Fold this protein.
Amino acid sequence: MKIIVDAMGGDNAPLAPVEGALRAAQELGVEILLTGRTEEILGCLEQLGHKTIPKGVEIAHASQVIEMSDNPARAFKDKPDSSMTVGLKLLKEGRGDAFVSAGSTGALLSAATLVIKRIRGIRRAALAPVVPNATGSMVLIDCGATAECTPEYLLQFAYMGAYYAQRFLGIPQPRVGLLNIGAEPGKGMELQKQAFDLLTQAHEAGRIHFIGNIEGREAISQGEADVLVTDGFTGNIFLKTVEGAAALFNHALKDMLLGSAKNKMAALMLKNSIGEFKKRFDSSEIGGTALLGISQPVIKAHGSSNAYAFYNAVRQAQKVAQGDIAGDIAANVEHMKLAVGRKEA
Amino acid sequence: MKIIVDAMGGDNAPLAPVEGALRAAQELGVEILLTGRTEEILGCLEQLGHKTIPKGVEIAHASQVIEMSDNPARAFKDKPDSSMTVGLKLLKEGRGDAFVSAGSTGALLSAATLVIKRIRGIRRAALAPVVPNATGSMVLIDCGATAECTPEYLLQFAYMGAYYAQRFLGIPQPRVGLLNIGAEPGKGMELQKQAFDLLTQAHEAGRIHFIGNIEGREAISQGEADVLVTDGFTGNIFLKTVEGAAALFNHALKDMLLGSAKNKMAALMLKNSIGEFKKRFDSSEIGGTALLGISQPVIKAHGSSNAYAFYNAVRQAQKVAQGDIAGDIAANVEHMKLAVGRKEA
């Protein structure tokens, strides 16, 4: 298996992606194809102690870099020789099995949709991060690929999220919940009400395990669902609110532990446990966010990814490619439309 | 000043509201008018060591109780002699200066709108909780009174939230932010885009201090805004996600501190600091959520309020009534419509 890695994407590029990919090549039994400016990549390799390109690693030269200031919808065409565009084209040509990039989310989404294409019948691709909750973690889908959604999109997100939870998180029958402002049926706006009906039909047909509306509080503090379905606007607010609350809490905890000499002593005693505690809420442990609905595996790594996060993103890409989630989706896409047909009939 | 308290609302009624109100009467220099079943209230008073009704406390008998299972839109009419309906009618008649209830949010919202009425020109009432953030706290408006909003509603929420932040939080020129999925102008759906324009116009006219779009992460972890404006659907998701994340974090912290004998020792050393830490994120410190846009002060206490939370809710009601936020809103309501007129012109 070969993972293509955008060596120029993210705040810490090119060193962090190169270092993370290198470690993945050494430890995970994958080959790596790095895209980006050859000179800079070679410089990083040298910095990491490699005078020549290590075994299992290749470089595909790309002279351009997509910046956060580039127009996401056009970046891929405006910069045809960017590390992102080149990487996606190589994936399309079968030169690798998955693509990892920490570049602009919007640009990656547009480029992946245009170069790799969506799975036939899938209306919109979705961003599906794995979010920590009380029982471990859950798949949130969508978290911002499509702000404005139809009930049918949400139905498709539910199926895609369930396949992803099965293959990536190893949950045989994932519980699918609809993010809403109350647990009772009939809650929310038209979008949620109609999606609720479609999801109920899919559940009754035995195709997904829909457990109903879930509020943000219970989704996190009880871990009630394995897949949390929502439109991209709401999902983005949800995800960033969790991140903000975690940051505030971590900061307050640190303030407390440094608050007095006695507290500092207690903090020393807790040192290892605090490490474990932080690990539980650390996004770099997951790797990145899968783009679901695209015909080949594409992983968006966090913009602030360090080498360890890139290593985990490559591991995630490997798992997604092995699981053939795109195959699951393609094989079942007729059901994702049928349910709508039935409703309209 | 007299605060009317619904003695029958909330999970811990009637004991918690009676106990909290009693403490408020003793410590805050307010009079209390309790609404509910006289026998039960007298029983609580006796349990709290009062054989007779204490000075500064009155009871207004109400034979019915609105339950969570009652239809929120009709509860107030279906149960005309409920503690909530009776309390609101007494407020309307001028028998008190503010009303506090921990009963059903939906029922309180409907009943307050029907009995007390909205301020003339205000399209929708809003629920405005105070939410902790990195710099202290901010006003979130709306958090669920109106799920589906127009840009004009959001403009009105911005004004109302700003007056509330001035009077209740004591911030002279509150920074108003629009909750969105990106900080740049032009982000979000039609609702956010149009609201952004209206808020910009109000800012340029010198009427509110609009600082632009704010993401959930920065709203919490940086405390960028004093007033966070959003539709009721998104605001509800935001609020409950914060609550869920706080619960998860608290739980994980507790697990860690009890994880080993050494950790337990460290926890003992940290005991006082942990108390302070928890207090910072404890909703019972605030009291409750103000219903803004209604012509008289109504405070929704949290359903799970204990006596201390009710005490704080009464203190909050006192402050809201003293600040005459409804007066501020009424005096400026023409601007909240004018901006829309200008846009349409």
